[in-house]
Specification:
Strand content: 15-25%
Largest sheet: 3 strands, antiparallel
Shape: elongated
Structural class: alpha+beta
Mean pLDDT: 76
Strand order of the largest sheet: 1-2-3
Number of strands: 3
Distance between the termini: 46 Å
Number of domains: 1
Radius of gyration: 19 Å
Number of helices: 2
Low-confidence stretches: none
Helix content: 10-25%
Order of helices and strands: HHEEE
Length: 82
Protein backbone atom coordinates (compact mmCIF):
# COMPACT_ATOMS: atom_id res chain seq x y z
CA UNK A 1 0.00 0.00 0.00
CA UNK A 2 1.40 3.42 -0.88
CA UNK A 3 2.04 6.18 1.65
CA UNK A 4 -0.64 8.35 0.01
CA UNK A 5 -3.27 5.62 0.40
CA UNK A 6 -2.32 5.00 4.03
CA UNK A 7 -2.45 8.74 4.81
CA UNK A 8 -5.87 9.05 3.16
CA UNK A 9 -7.22 6.13 5.22
CA UNK A 10 -5.94 7.63 8.47
CA UNK A 11 -7.46 11.05 7.69
CA UNK A 12 -10.93 9.49 7.21
CA UNK A 13 -11.10 7.43 10.41
CA UNK A 14 -14.04 8.56 12.50
CA UNK A 15 -12.28 8.08 15.83
CA UNK A 16 -9.60 10.59 14.76
CA UNK A 17 -12.10 13.44 14.40
CA UNK A 18 -14.14 15.39 16.91
CA UNK A 19 -17.86 15.41 16.20
CA UNK A 20 -18.93 18.96 15.40
CA UNK A 21 -22.49 18.86 16.76
CA UNK A 22 -22.54 22.52 17.79
CA UNK A 23 -23.91 23.63 14.42
CA UNK A 24 -26.95 21.37 14.87
CA UNK A 25 -27.86 22.41 18.43
CA UNK A 26 -29.37 25.82 17.68
CA UNK A 27 -31.63 24.75 14.76
CA UNK A 28 -32.83 21.71 16.74
CA UNK A 29 -33.67 23.82 19.81
CA UNK A 30 -35.38 26.48 17.66
CA UNK A 31 -37.47 23.76 16.02
CA UNK A 32 -38.41 22.30 19.42
CA UNK A 33 -39.58 25.73 20.67
CA UNK A 34 -41.00 27.05 17.38
CA UNK A 35 -44.37 27.94 18.89
CA UNK A 36 -42.60 30.08 21.53
CA UNK A 37 -40.45 32.04 19.06
CA UNK A 38 -42.02 35.34 20.12
CA UNK A 39 -40.92 34.95 23.75
CA UNK A 40 -37.46 33.39 23.32
CA UNK A 41 -34.18 34.92 22.14
CA UNK A 42 -31.16 32.81 21.19
CA UNK A 43 -27.53 33.86 21.52
CA UNK A 44 -25.13 31.34 19.96
CA UNK A 45 -21.49 31.03 20.90
CA UNK A 46 -21.86 33.30 23.92
CA UNK A 47 -18.43 34.06 25.39
CA UNK A 48 -18.06 33.30 29.10
CA UNK A 49 -14.63 34.80 29.49
CA UNK A 50 -11.97 36.74 27.62
CA UNK A 51 -10.29 33.39 26.95
CA UNK A 52 -11.62 30.67 24.66
CA UNK A 53 -14.40 29.51 27.01
CA UNK A 54 -17.87 29.69 25.52
CA UNK A 55 -21.22 27.99 25.75
CA UNK A 56 -23.03 26.54 22.75
CA UNK A 57 -26.35 28.26 23.22
CA UNK A 58 -27.95 30.75 25.61
CA UNK A 59 -31.76 30.84 25.42
CA UNK A 60 -33.34 33.94 26.95
CA UNK A 61 -37.00 33.74 27.90
CA UNK A 62 -38.34 37.26 27.32
CA UNK A 63 -41.60 36.92 29.27
CA UNK A 64 -41.26 35.49 32.79
CA UNK A 65 -44.99 34.82 33.13
CA UNK A 66 -45.27 32.52 30.09
CA UNK A 67 -45.11 28.77 30.64
CA UNK A 68 -43.55 26.63 27.91
CA UNK A 69 -45.45 23.34 27.77
CA UNK A 70 -42.99 20.62 26.76
CA UNK A 71 -40.43 18.43 28.52
CA UNK A 72 -37.51 20.84 28.36
CA UNK A 73 -39.41 24.11 28.34
CA UNK A 74 -41.14 23.50 31.67
CA UNK A 75 -37.85 23.91 33.52
CA UNK A 76 -36.80 27.12 31.70
CA UNK A 77 -35.91 30.16 33.71
CA UNK A 78 -35.00 33.62 32.36
CA UNK A 79 -31.53 32.57 31.04
CA UNK A 80 -30.94 28.96 29.98
CA UNK A 81 -27.54 27.58 29.02
CA UNK A 82 -27.54 24.63 26.63
Amino acid sequence: MSNETETAKRSHRLEDHKTQWHMAVTPAIKLEFMEYSQILDYDTGYLLNTNALEIDLLIIKKADDTVIENEMGRIFRRHNII
